[in-house]
Amino acid sequence: MAEVSLSKVTKEFGAVSVIKGIDLQIADGEFCVFVGPSGCGKSTLLRMVAGLEEISSGALRIGGRDMTQVGPSDRGVAMVFQSYALYPHMTVAENIGFGLRMTGHDKAEIAKRTSAAAKMLQLDHLLDRKPGQLSGGQRQRVAIGRAIVRNPDVFLFDEPLSNLDAALRVQMRGEISRLHQDLGATMIYVTHDQVEAMTMADKIVVLSAGHIEQVGSPLELYHRPRNLFVAGFIGSPKMNFLTVEARPAPGGAEVTLPGGAVVTLAGQIAVAGQMTLGLRPEHASATGVGDAVLEGTVKLAEHLGSETLFFVALSDGSEIAVKADGLASERPGDRMRVGVPARACHLFDAAGQALINGDLTR
Amino acid sequence: MFPTPIQKASPAARIGYQVLLPVALMIWLIPLIGVAVTSLRPASDLAAGNYFGIPSGLAFENYAAVFRDSPIGWYILNSFKVTVPTVIGAVALSCLTGFALAVYGFRANLWVFFAFVAGNFIPFQILMVPVRDMTLRAGMYDTTLGLVLFHIAFQTGFCTLFMRNFIKGLPFALIESARVEGVSEWRIFRHIVLPLMRPAIAALSVLVFTFVWNDYFWATVLVQGQHAMPVTAGLYSLNGQWVAAWHLVSAGSIVAALPPVLMFFLMQRHFIAGLTLGATKG
Amino acid sequence: MSDTARSAGFWKRNQLKIAPWAFLAPGAIMFLLYVLIPIVQSVWISFHDWDGLGDKVWIGLGNYVELLDDDTFYVALKNNLIWLALYLLAIPMGLATALFLNQTVWGIRLYKSLFFFPFVISQVVVGLMFTWFYAPDFGLFSQLIKWLTGTEIAVLADERFVTLGIIVAGLWPQTAYCMILYLTGLNNLNPEQIEAARMDNARGWRLLWHVILPQLAPATFIAMVVTVIGALRSFDLVSIMTAGGPYGSSQVLSYFMYEQALSEYGYRMGYGAAIAVVLFLIMMVFITLFIVRMIAQERNR
C-alpha cells in the first residue's frame, strides 16, 4: 500500500512563499497529474514529495509512514526527470543498474532486474549503447527503466515528455499509461500540458500560484470547473468568457448577453450583478441553434479539416471562438449567428467562483 | 563569421593574405627565431662577429655543452619534481572543492568561492615573507617539497574556480537522480561527477603544468642551492656564469622552454579550453 | 555495535550538511594556510622592524613613513602606472591579431598556435630573448635602430627607455594571451546576429563596434582581468632583464619589495612587507571590481 498524503504542506525560499499549504490525498495505485501554468509550483511540489526539496512546514506521508524528514533514498520513490538525467559515461545497462549497484545489491540480482525492465520497455537490444547513441524516445525509456528496477512504491515524473516531438509524445503517453496498468503502482506526474493531464490521469490536481485550484477526475474538471482559472485552463481551445448581466429569476438565473439577447440558466443565484458567462467553443453553435443567439462578424477562420474554428467579433467588441463542422464555409467578414445552449453555460461571480455549472448530461 | 571570410574577397586579396600570414608570423616570432638560430651557431661565429649571417655550421654541440658543462639536466629534473606532484595535488584538491562549491547550496558557499577567486589574483609579494618563514621553520626551505606544497595551495585557487564552473555546467538532475536512488554523496562524486570531469582535469593539468614549470619568483624565494633549484631559476644563475656566451644561453633557454611547449602542442585543445574559460557566454 | 548503528544513522541524516565541508576541507585548509593567513601575517609584519631571524620590533607605521620618503618607492609606483597603462595595449593588439587570424585557410590552425607560442614560454626565457634582442652591438633591435637612425641605443642601459623595453617584452606573451581569448570569443559568435546585421547594412568597423564587440564582452572582461593582474605582478622580466636598474630606474613595486626583503642589501622583512601591503591594496581595488562584477553575473544565472 502506498497512498500519498500531504497535509498543510508549505515551501518557502527565503521570504518567498512558493507552496502555500497543500492538502491532498492520492490513493494507492492512482495516476495523479499535477498540472498548471509554469511557475505554479507543481515541480517544486513533486520535488518535495521526492525529498529533493525540504518541506518548510506540514507533513508528508507515504504508505502511512511519516516521510517529512526522511531522505530521498528512503522514501520508496523513483523519479523520472525532464532531462532524463542519464549518466552519459555509462551504458544503458549500467544506467539502469547503477542505483542497485550503489546500494549493494548483488550482481545476479542486478542483471535479472535490469533485463526484466529492459524487456518491459523494449530496450533489450540497446543495453550496451551509451545514452549519446539513443533517440529521444529511447532515452526516455531508459530513464523509466531506471525507475522500474528499484521497485518503488511511488513513481514520480517531472514533465517527462516535454523534450520529445509531438508524434513521439503521443506514443510515450500511451506507453506510460500502459506501464501504469501493468505495474499498478502509484504515480505522480507533473505537466503543463492539459492534454497530457486529461488523457492520462485518474486524478488531476490543478495548481496555480502555489495552491490547489481544484482536484478531480478529468471529466469532472471539464464539466464542473470550480472557478474561472480551472475553466480556462482545462479544455482546448479555451473556454469563451463573456461579461454579462445576471439576475435571479423564477426558474433560474436570467442572463443578458452582449447584444441584448437573454438566456435563462437552470440554477440559483442570490444577487444580481455583472458576472462572467463561460461557454466552450465546441458547445457554441455556428448555425444559430440554441436558447439564445449572439450576432457577430467572422474575424478569422481556421480550417483544420475535421473542424473549423471561427473567431467572431460581437457587437460589444468582445470576441468568441466557435467550433464548427470542417465543411463550414463562412469567411472573414461574413455575419454569423452564434447559438448559445443554456445547459452548456457556466456562470461565474465577480470573484471568479462558479455559481452555475452547465450540465450536458442532463 | 567575422571578419568576412577571405574566400569571398577578390583573388588578389586572397593571395595577399596568404603571403602576409607567414611574413607576419616571422616578424612576430623574431626574438624566438633569433634565439633558436643563435643556439645552433658555432661559438666561432660569435667570436668573429657573425651574429646575423648564415651560421657557418649547425652547432648541435652547443646543446651537448649545455648539458655537459652545466647542471641544467639536474635543474630540469628538479622542475619535474616540483611540477608533477603539484599538478596531481592541485587537480585532486580542486576536484573536491569544486564539487563542494558547485553542488551544495550552503550559506557560506559564495563567500568561500570568492575567497578562492580573489586569492588567485593577489600579488605574490604579500605572501612572500610569511610563506618563506613558514617553509624555513618547517625545515622545507631549499627543498622541492616546500615549493610543491606552496604551489598546490596557490594553484588550488585557480583550479577551484575552474572546476566549480565546470561542474555547475553539468546537468544537476544527474546528481538529484542519484540521490533519489540512494547513492551516497561520496559515491555520487566518485562514480558520476568524476568520470564526467575528465576534460576539465586534462585542461587544468596542462595549465598548471605550464604555470608551475614557468614559475620563477617562488623558485628564487624558497630555494637557494643547486640541489633543489628548478630550471627557471637555474637558467638565470647560468646566465650570470655564461657572460656573453649567447650560444649557450640560447641553447639553455630553448631547453628550459621545451617541456611546456611540447605539452602545449600535444594537448593544445585542452590547453586553450582551460585558458579561455569564461571567454564566451555559457 | 549500537553506537556504530547510531552513527551510521546520523551520517545518513546529516550527510547533506556535512558533505560540503568534508569535500572542502583539504583544499580550503591548504589555501588558508598558504594564502589567506599569510596575507594577515604580512600586514602584521609590516608594522615591525624585522630581519627575518631575530625578534620583531614593533615600530607602528614606521615602515610606511619611511616609504613616503623613499625616492625609489615613487619611481616604482610611477613605473607600475606606466606598466598598467601600456600593458592594456595587449587587449586591442590581441583583438587585432585575432581578427587577422580568424579565417579558414590552409594551415591556419598552425598559424594560430605559433602566434600563441610566446605565452607558453617562461617569462625567464622571454626576458633572456629580449635581452639578447636589445643587446648593444649585436642585438637585432639595436642593429635595426642603428640602421634606421644611425645612432645606437642600449635600451636596457638607458634610463629613458628601459621600462618601455621591458614592457614590450611583457606585451609579447600578453598579446598572445588576449589573442587566444578573442579567437575563442570570435569562434562562438552568434552567426545569425551577424547575418542580420549585414542585412541591416552594417559592415566593417561599424559591424565590429556595434555587433561584434558587444558579443565579445566576456572575452574582453577576462582579458582586462588577466592583463591588469599581469601588469601589477610584473616581477620576472624586471628581475631577469635589469634587476631594477640602471640606478633603480626600471624598479616596480613587486621587485622593489623582493629586493628590500631578500637581497644583498640586507633582509628588511618589515619594510618589504610594507611595500607588499601597498601593492596588495592597489591590486585589491581591481580585484574588488572584478569580484563585484562576477557576483552580479552569478546572481543573473
From TrEMBL, chain A:
Keywords: ATP-binding, Nucleotide-binding, Transport. GO terms for cellular component: ATP-binding cassette (ABC) transporter complex, substrate-binding subunit-containing; maltose transport complex. Residues 4-234 form the ABC transporter domain. CDD domains: ABC_MalK_N. InterPro entries: AAA+_ATPase, ABC_transporter-like_ATP-bd, ABC_transporter-like_CS, ABC_transpr_MalK-like, ABC_transpr_MalK/UgpC-like, Mo/tungstate-bd_C_term_dom, NA-bd_OB-fold, P-loop_NTPase. The keyword Nucleotide-binding applies. Belongs to the ABC transporter superfamily. This is Sugar ABC transporter ATP-binding protein.
Automatic annotation (TrEMBL), chain B:
It is found in: Cell inner membrane; Cell membrane. It is a multi-pass membrane protein. Keywords: Cell inner membrane, Cell membrane, Membrane, Transmembrane, Transmembrane helix, Transport. The keyword Cell inner membrane applies. The chain crosses the membrane at residues 20-40, 82-103, 110-128, 148-167, 188-213, 244-266. One of its GO terms (cellular component) is plasma membrane. The keyword Amino-acid biosynthesis does not apply. SUPFAM superfamilies: MetI-like. Its main location: membrane. Pfam families: BPD_transp_1. It comes from the Bacteria. Residues 76-267 form the ABC transmembrane type-1 domain. CDD domains: TM_PBP2 (cd06261). GO terms for biological process: transmembrane transport. The complex is composed of two ATP-binding proteins (UgpC), two transmembrane proteins (UgpA and UgpE) and a solute-binding protein (UgpB). Belongs to the binding-protein-dependent transport system permease family. PANTHER family: ABC TRANSPORTER PERMEASE PROTEIN MG189-RELATED-RELATED (PTHR43744), SN-GLYCEROL-3-PHOSPHATE TRANSPORT SYSTEM PERMEASE PROTEIN UGPE (PTHR43744:SF8). Part of the ABC transporter complex UgpBAEC involved in sn-glycerol-3-phosphate (G3P) import. Probably responsible for the translocation of the substrate across the membrane. This is sn-glycerol-3-phosphate transport system permease protein UgpE.
UniProtKB/TrEMBL annotation, chain C:
Belongs to the binding-protein-dependent transport system permease family. Pfam families: BPD_transp_1. This is ABC transporter permease. It comes from the Bacteria. Signal peptide: none annotated. SUPFAM superfamilies: MalF N-terminal region-like (SSF160964), MetI-like (SSF161098). InterPro entries: ABC_transporter_permease, MetI-like, MetI-like_sf. Residues 76-290 form the ABC transmembrane type-1 domain. It is found in: Cell membrane. CDD domains: TM_PBP2 (cd06261). It is a multi-pass membrane protein. GO terms for biological process: transmembrane transport. One of its GO terms (cellular component) is plasma membrane. The keyword Signal does not apply. It comes from Gemmobacter aquaticus. The chain crosses the membrane at residues 21-47, 81-102, 114-135, 161-186, 207-232, 271-292. Its main location: membrane. The keyword Acetylation does not apply. Keywords: Cell membrane, Membrane, Transmembrane, Transmembrane helix, Transport.
